[in-house]
């Protein structure tokens, strides 16, 4: 189990426990995007009551899952609109989270709301609050008083930061700048989705060598499955070298 802290340092601690990913989890994820990321979180935080989490806290949980699977770095690929060149840059997620936390206005009150510039009390959005219209969203998130949607939005961006980021990039070929959207939920699920062929191959290797059932293999954690598959591949390589010698 891995503990992921969902609140910023200095705020009331909120720890979510996540179990390791198994093949069954990977098989259950169909496609990519926010809904798939939520399914993943539901499965790994089994039994935890996380229905009341804010979007900001959910992104911290997803960052914890990402870190367990892939480490701290995320590679972004950009296709330059000016010259067509494709280039990459790297994000350091723990560093981004630390920067976000340093900018926060401090913890909310016991009811989860902040008093904003003395004119309104606002709370962080939960997934069910999200709507496209900024005025409707601001009204939903205002507990007391009132302020413009723009002011509420700007305050919550800092007070309850998310890991959907608009990043400035610059093409190394032609120096054209671009704004690139990074969305952790999409990024994480795309990466997992792209690894589906490995899951099938590893399951095939293990079933062929040990005769374990599909269910038994899918119940293995991802790390254990890969370790077994690695041993079988090494053994096969040794045998084939011996045969050709
Ligand atoms: Zn370019």
Structure overview:
It is a single chain. Helix content is 48%, strand content 20%. The protein has 245 residues and is of the alpha+beta class. The mean pLDDT is 94. The protein starts with a strand and ends with a helix. The chain folds into three domains: 2-100 and 163-194, no CATH class; 105-159, no CATH class; 197-244. The relative contact order is 0.15. It has ten helices and nine strands. It has helices spanning 23-28, 34-44, 55-70, 93-103, 134-141, 149-159, 184-194, 196-210, 214-218, 222-244, and strands spanning 2-5, 15-18, 73-79, 86-92, 113-116, 120-123, 142-145, 164-170, 177-183. It has a three-stranded antiparallel beta sheet. A two-stranded antiparallel sheet has the order 1-2. Residues 80, 82-83, 85, 171, 173-174, 176 line the site of zinc ion.
**Low-pLDDT residue spans:** none
Work out the count of structural domains.
Answer: 3
Number of strands: 9
Distance linking N and C termini? 46 Å
Distinct ligand kinds: zinc ion
Question: Percent range for helical residues?
Answer: 40-55%
Which strand-content bin applies to the residues? Answer: 15-25%
Enumerate the strands of the largest sheet in spatial order, edge to edge or round the barrel: 5-6-7
The global form is: globular
Q: Over the alpha carbons, how many angstroms does the gyration radius reach? A: 22 Å
**Number of contiguous helices:** 10
Overall average residue pLDDT: 94
Largest sheet: 3 strands, antiparallel
What is the ordering of alpha helices and beta strands? EEHHHEEHEEHEHEEHHHH
Structural class: alpha+beta
């Amino acid at each position: 189990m891995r503990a992921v802290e969902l609140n910023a340092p200095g705020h009331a601690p909120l720890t979510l426990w996540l179990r390791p990913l198994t093949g069954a989890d990977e098989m259950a994820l169909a496609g990519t995007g926010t809904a798939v990321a939520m399914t993943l979180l539901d499965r790994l935080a089994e039994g935890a009551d996380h229905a009341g989490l804010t979007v900001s806290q959910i992104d911290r949980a997803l960052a914890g899952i990402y870190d367990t699977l892939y480490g701290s770095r995320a590679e972004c690929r950009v296709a330059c609109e000016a010259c067509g060149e494709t280039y990459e840059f790297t994000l350091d997620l723990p560093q981004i989270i630390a920067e976000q936390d340093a900018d926060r206005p401090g913890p909310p009150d016991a009811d989860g709301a902040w008093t904003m510039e003395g004119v309104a009390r606002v709370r962080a959005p939960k997934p069910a609050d999200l709507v496209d219209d900024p005025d409707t969203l601001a009204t939903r998130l205002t507990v007391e008083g009132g302020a413009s949607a723009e002011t509420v939005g700007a305050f919550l961006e800092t007070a309850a930061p998310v890991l959907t980021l608009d990043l400035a990039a610059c093409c190394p070929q032609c120096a054209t700048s671009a704004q690139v959207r990074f969305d952790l939920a999409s990024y994480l699920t795309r990466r997992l989705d792209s690894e589906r062929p490995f899951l099938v191959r590893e399951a095939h290797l293990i079933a062929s060598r040990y005769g374990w059932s599909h269910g038994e293999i899918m119940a293995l954690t991802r790390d254990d499955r890969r370790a077994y598959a690695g041993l079988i591949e090494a053994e096969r390589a040794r045998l084939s070298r011996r045969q050709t010698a």
